[in-house]
Each structure stands twice: as C-alpha cells, then as structure tokens.
Amino acid sequence: MTGRYLLRRLLAAVGVLWAAFTVSFVVLYLLPGDPVATMASGGLDGEPLPPEQLDALRARYGLDQPVLVQYGQRLLAALTGDFGTSIQNGQDVRSAILEALPPTLQISAAGLAVAVLFGGSVALVATYTRAFWLRQLLMALPSLAVSLPVFWVGLMLVQVFAFGLGLLPSVGANGPAALVLPAVTLGLPTGALLAQVLAKSLSHALGEPYVTTARAKGVGRASVHLRHALRNAALPALTVFGYIVGNLIAGSVVVETVFTRPGLGRLTVAAVGVQDIPVVQGVVVFAAAVFVLVNLAVDLIYPLLDPRIGVTS
Amino acid sequence: MPRPLASWLVAAVVLLSACGSTPTASTADPGVPQPGGTLRFAVSSDQGCVDPQQVGSNDTIFSLRQVVDSLTDQDPAGGELRPWLATSWESNADASSYTFTLREGVTFSDGTPLDAAAVKANFDAVQNLGARGTLPKGYLAGYVGTTVESPTRLTVAFDRPNVQFLQGTSTHSLGILSPATVARSDDDRCASVVGSGPFVIESYTRDESIVLAKRAGYAWGSSLWRSQGEAQLDRIEFRIVPESGVRVGSLASGEVDAIGNIAQQDEALLTAAGAQLLGRPNPGIPFGITFNQASPLGADPAVREAVSLAIDRAEVVATVYTSQTKPATSPLASTTPGYADQSALLPFDPARAGSVLDAAGWLPGPDGIRARNGTPLTVELTWYANSPANRAAVELIQQQVRKVGIDLQLREKPISENTPTLQSGQYVANWGNTTRADPDILRSTYSTAGNNYYRLPSGPLDEVLAQQAAQPDEAARAATVAQAQQLLVREHQTIPVVELTTVLGVAADVHGVAFDASSRIQLHDTWKVQP
Question: Distance between CA atoms of B498 and B313, rounded to whole angstroms?
Fold first, then answer.
C-alpha cells in the first residue's frame, strides 16, 4: 500500500464525482420543460401564468443565465458542499438529503441483512448438500430471484402479508414491523446475486489442496465447509459489495414508492417528476460519492483480509 | 416501470382475495353523527407545501381545505355564494370594489383575532407570492388595495371590473391565514401555517403524511354545513401512498378509511369490498382537444368540425372512465356556474364529418387517410400524463377519427412541459383541462386579450368574454356566459370531450364526506361509526 496508489485512487474518485455532476447537469438541461412553469401550474390543471411573470420567476431562480454560467456557478458552489435550494419548495438541498438519509440507510441495512442471510444460506446449503435435486433447485433460485421485478415482488408481498393475512403494515415507516416487507423486497435480488458469487467461490475453494489436506487430517465436513472453505470463499463476495450498495440505493427508489416510505428514493422520484434540478443533482452526486467511497474502502481493506493480495501500483 | 401491468396483476390478486370476503352493506340511513375517531385518508402525492395559498394539486388541497376558512362558501348545488367568515357583502356598480362584513369572535388557532386587518394582510401578501401563488394572484388580478373601515368591515378595490374575485374568495387559495403566517417567506409558509379552520395541522412529514387535529372551540363554520360548531372527527391522517394498487388494497382491507384518485379498473373491486364510491365532475374546462389556430390544420374550420363530429364521446366515457363520469356537453363542465348545455352542437356523426371534409377538398387516399393537394390529414395531438385515464382516452379517440380518414398522431409530454408547449406554439392540437368553479375560466383560456395560447383570431367572442367579467348581476352574466359557450362550440374553437370527475373510495362506516363546488372535499361534517 503506497501513498502514490492512494493519491491516484482519490484523484479517480474526484473525477467520477465531477463526471456525475456534469452528466446530471447536462441531462437535466437537455430535458425539454420548465421547472418554473411546472411549479406555477401546481403540477396539475391550474390556470396558466402570464409569460412576463414566468420570466420574472426564472430570473429569481437564476434560470435566465446562459447555461455555461449556471454550470460554473453551480460547480463552484458544489465544491463548497452547497447544492443550492429546491426550486419546488425552497428547502436547502443538503438538508433535504440528510433528512431523507436515515430511513434509506435503515431500509438498506435491513435489506443487506436479508440479502446476506438469504444469499449465504442458499450458497452454503447448495454446496453442502449431497442431494442432487436440492443442489440443483437451490442453484436455480438465484437466477429466478434476480429476474423477478422488484416492484412486483413488493406488491405481491403487500397483497399477501398485509391485505390478505393482515400480519404486517402495508405502508409507512413506523416501527420494526413496517421494515419487514420492504427489507425482504430489497434483499431478495441482492441476496440472489450474493448467493451466485458465494456458491461459485465455495465450489472452487472446496477443490483447493488445503481442503483435501484438512479432510485427510480427519476434520468433519461441516467444519471444513464453514471454517476452511467459507473464510476464503467470502473474499470474492466482498468484491461485489460496491455493486451491492449501488443495487440497494437503486432498489430504494422502487421500494420506497411501493411501501410509501420516506427516503432518498422518494425524494429523487419527486424531484425528477417536477425537474427540480438542484435536488436531482444533489442526489446523483451523493449517490456517486457513496459508491466511490464504498469501492475505495473495499479495495483498501481487501489486502488486509487476504495477505496473498498486495496493492501494486 | 410498467405500471399498467403491475396494477392489473394487483387487481387480479385483490379480486381473488376479495371474492372470499362478504361485502358489508352500506348503511342507507347513517343516523345521528357520532363524534370522535380518526379518519385515515390515502392520497397519491405530496406537493411539498402545506400553505393553502400556494398549492394547486387536489391531493394536497383535500387536507389543507380543512385548515383554513374562507370569506364565502360556494353552494355546490347552484353555484351561489353563501356566508362563511363574511356575513354579508356588496359590490359597486361596475364590480371593481367589494365590501365585506365579517363575523365577530373568530380567532386563528394561535389565538389572534381574525379581523378586517388580518384579511387585508392576507390579500396584500398575495402580491408578493412567487410561482406557487398563481391561483390567488389570478383571483386578485388588478388588486389596488384593501381598506379597513372597522374591525369587521373592509373594502377590496381593483383597477378593473373583477366579478370572478367573489368566487375566488370561496376557494382554499384565498383561505385566510394568521397575520404572523403571511408575514413569513413563501418557503417558510410551505413548512407550516396557522389558520382558523375546523382542523389544525398537527404534523407534516414530507412525502409521508399530513396529520390534522380538531380545533377545539371552533364555532364559525360555513352556513352550508350541517353545524357551525366543532368538527366531528378528532383527527384526520392524510397518508401519501403513490402506488394505486396499494391504495386500493389498503381501503379494501380496512387499513385506511378513504382514498382519492380511483381508476375505472378499481371500481368493481372496491364495490365488492363494500366501499362507497363518491364522485362529482370537476367544474371548469372539461378534457378536450383544442387546436393551435396558428397552424394550417388548426386554422381550417372543416378539420376542427370533422374531428368534433368523429368523436364518439359516449364510447370514450364508457370505455375509459369511471361510471360516474359524463361526456362533455359544453366548453364548461356541467358543475360550473353558468354552464349551458350545448350537446345539440356536439353530435357524434361520422357521416357528416366525412361530407364536411369532402366539401373542403380533403379526399380519401388509397390507405384511407384523407389528403388535400398532396398534404395528408395528419393531426398531431399533444397530451400529458397528468390524469391516469388520458392515455387510454386519446388512443381511443385516435381510432375513432381514423374511421373518417383523419390520421391523429399522439405525442406524449411530461406535465412539466404543458405551459412551455402552449406558450411556444410548437403544437397542432392539445389535450387538456382546467378546474375552476367560475365561468371566467373561459376568459382566461380563450380571450385573445389574455395568454391566447391557442392563437384564436380576435372576434366577437372577446367582447362577450370581457362583458361577463364585469357583470355583477348573476342572471345577466349567465346569459352572456351561455352566449360565449355557444360561440366557442359553433366555431369549433375547442372540442370538449369528457368531464374530469373526482371519484373517492370511502369505507362503508364513514358518512358525511361532502364535495364542495370545486369538487374538492369538506370534512367538517364527516363522521365515522364508532365501535
């Protein structure tokens, strides 16, 4: 691990963030439409404002400046962590994101727990069992779970467990019971991905010489599986952790909509709908930052966990 | 996200689960209102603002209408204005100034009195509202100022005749807020407001809920209500539930007591679950097609007439809309004061549509599409996804006009592009509507002195529209408004198709949910059967 490596990684991270900022800016500006007019019409069927009033409002929000000037101003402000205020409701973008973060973190953590439990057990049982049919069945589960649309899974769970059986609340974010269905919805596809990676690397590890050695020494099957093979097989699973975090953030958009939970996903959907440029940009840059940081952390921790791997510049 | 598919799947599952339950009969005689309890109401969106003077979305108005009182109330039955905060009012001869006498003893929930000075503070502050203040600004167009003559008497003056202002005073947009509230900035007001209404805002969580609590000691209700005293319900929880399948399931399973935004496919399901379906057409401009008359096709009266004749409004309503929906019979919806039935001028007659086009030189080509001098009769219709039924409606109309040789091309745009599209004139025909319980909406929509988004040529219609805006006498104004409606339909300046109807699903044990004149709801008299 060298300082130069770290510096290169940090520069790359900054590059990614700048790209996220710029791409989101360009996309939002290329979208035809007018956030001020949207706001004035109340998003519905209100009477239209006269053009001169609309122009005055655009000036008030700085939307009448040339695009490059607006870009420069926003970029400079963003460097100081200021993403401006929402056009729709005047709330500071940074505080809007911070406000929406805890419920999303909660649901992501619960979803991750479900994913690890579900994915881990499927992979372990599938590689441990001697029953051919069970192994085949379990190995088929992940690809099935990955291909199910998240919103459909969510709606089905609501129909069965909330409306049908009345066991769990269908909407809202009150108490741990309200966390169950969204966590399962979010955790299933992620867990399936984890199961695929883990099962593959477990099968690979079980063929390694040290496993043969352990078996020859008379170590039990379960012990070999859990203590020897799993420890090594878990490392490749760690590499997809960054991807999983991205999945959880993306999944929160759907899950928060279906289960009516507040959070980053809902904030994003609402802001995109009314072209609230500062809010969308803030969320995009924030999500990119999380993604970059998680990947950086994984890359830095990896060598510590697996001494066989070194960071090479 | 393929929503239609999702809603069908959900509908199928709910239907299956609903088949097993026995529907509870809606009580024919609700009996004596029982006070207490919490009404749980699911709506689909949150506008992100709880200031009634700054919202235009029905989902949000449903809750905020309960928080403020207005000077007047409008009778949904006939459109007349009735006393609320104001016990009486009169206007000068040319309707450019109005004097109100206020009720005594009214207070805001922060304890300050609601007097003439408070009303003046509200009307003065409207002038400084930003983009979200479109509605109240429109009602106060030409505002000169308010003079306070005594704590219970005030005069509002305009620089021009402004008859529609009086109806404006009955809306949530001119609901009176405490002077401390209107002194704050637009954005601050969006976070919390203090009113004098039968309910106060207990909490607001963005994108999650607006919770209202009964105002103790309330005693100045509208003269149209069952009682002027405190509300029946202790609390009302408005939950924001964007997914329609979840809203319907919540009502069917008893998790909530009422839901907004019912679609046609939800009706059977909710009826099977024993829910009541309450509907009322929105007043104002019904959904319909209006041409841009600066475009060659829009300027051709034969094309406009043929499109109107080729649309089978009854089929559109039966196929796409909820059972309470009516076809449009005028440029105004039937619930608008001053509405005059023009259905004689809006027949479905494809044969006549064909002969009108033949006479104008639009002749059928080999593929059935008509053409004139090599130009095909291809009309581009711009529409927006602001109402769930829009897509199915315009697609059906496309098939209907195709039968007479008109090629309707559909162009969907996000609702944020509605105003810019109309403003720029980059369109041929537009599908839209506007909710307003006053016929003056015709003037702001079709007068060439206004925005004139449809590029109408100036003509006798302008004069008629200006005339009604300055007629304080109701009968005389209604006659003028009827004339305007006839002119609009006769010249096919707009092609009304269907009246947007607000339909709510309400549990069987909830009574007294009332629609106001704007087809929004008043929950003061609402009560729940208590266990």
Answer: 7
DSSP string, A118-160: HHHHHHHHHHH---HHHHHHHHHHHHHHHHS-HHHHHHHHIII
* Tokens of residue B320, six digits: 């796409």
Nearest to B239 by CA among B413, B496, B97, B62: B62
Closest residue by Cα to residue B72 from B156, B192, B180 = B156
At A64-98, the pLDDT tens digits run 888 888 888 888 888 888 888 887 777 888 888 99
Most distant CA pair in chain A: distance in Å?
A: 86
* Element of type H or E holding B292: none
Residue B315 sits at the chain A interface (C-beta within 8 Å): no
| C-alpha distances in Å from residue B282, one per residue of A153, B95, B485, B492 | 36, 27, 17, 22
Paired residues of B503 in beta bridges = B279
- Long-range contacts of the stretch B134-137 (C-beta < 8 A, 24+): B134/A40, B134/A41, B134/A42, B134/A46, B134/A47, B134/A48, B134/A49, B134/B56, B135/A42, B135/A46, B135/A47, B135/B53, B135/B56, B135/B171, B135/B173, B136/B53, B136/B168, B136/B173, B136/B174, B137/A53
> What predicted TM-score, i.e. pTM, was given to this entire model?
0.82
Question: Burial level of B359, CB count in 10 A (0-12/13-18/19+)?
Answer: exposed
Alpha-carbon gap, residue A168 to A172, rounded angstroms: 11
* Amino acid in the structure at residue B317: V
| CA separation, residue B6 to residues A163, A262, B54, B62, B481 (Å) | 16, 22, 34, 27, 45
Mean pLDDT of B131-156: 92
Residue B523's alpha-carbon distances to A182, A267, B197, in angstroms, are 33, 29, 11
Cα distance between the two ends of chain B = 41
From the list B243, B311, B281, B270, the residue with the least C-alpha distance to B495 is B311
- Angstrom distance (rounded) from CA B504 to CA B41: 10
- Token look-up 């979840």 returns B246
Alpha carbon distance B445, B496 (integer Å): 13
Assigned token pair, B162: 């402004």
What is the phi/psi pair of residue B156, to 5°? -105, 125
Q: Which of B57, B190, B420 shows the shortest C-beta gap to A43?
A: B57
Q: What is the rounded distance in angstroms from the CA atom of residue A64 to the CA atom of residue B244?
A: 38
Long-range contacts of B362-365 (CB under 8 A, 24+ apart): B362/B302, B362/B303, B362/B306, B362/B405, B364/B405, B365/B405
With b meaning 16 or more CB within 10 Å and e meaning fewer, what string describes B365-378?
A: eeeeebbeeeeebe
Report d(CA A19, CA B15) in Å as an integer. Answer: 48
Tell me the sheet residues that pair with B380.
Answer: B409
What does the DSSP assignment read for B9-62? HHHHHHHHHHHTSPPPPPPS---S-----EEEEEES---S---GGG---HHHHH
Which residue in B has a C-alpha nearest to residue A169's C-alpha? B255
Separation between Cα atoms, residue A301 and residue A238, nearest integer Å: 10
Q: What are phi and psi of B258, to 5 degrees?
A: -155, 150
Distance CA B223, CA B72 (A): 9
DSSP character at residue B465: H
Question: Are A163 and B284 in contact (CB < 8 Å)?
Answer: no
pLDDT digits (tens, 9 = 90+) for A241-287: 878 888 888 888 888 888 888 888 888 888 887 778 888 889 988 88
Q: Tokens at residue A64, please? A: 């009448």
Rounded to whole angstroms, the Cα distance separating A17 from B434 reads: 43
List CB contacts (< 8 A) between A62 and chain B.
none
How large is the average pLDDT for residues A205-228? Answer: 76
Say yes or no for a CB contact (<8 Å) between A41 and B134.
Answer: yes
CB spacing of A166 vs B239 below 8 angstroms: no
**Closest CA of chain A from B404, distance in Å:** 31
E strands, B162-300, in order? 199-205, 209-214, 235-240, 258-259, 276-281, 284-291
